[in-house]
Amino acid sequence: MDIKKHMHEITPLRIGHAVRVSPNNEYFSDWPDVYVVVGLEWEYQRGCGSKLNISIASDEEIEMRYGSTDGWGVDDLLPA
Question: Model pTM?
Answer without folding.
Answer: 0.82
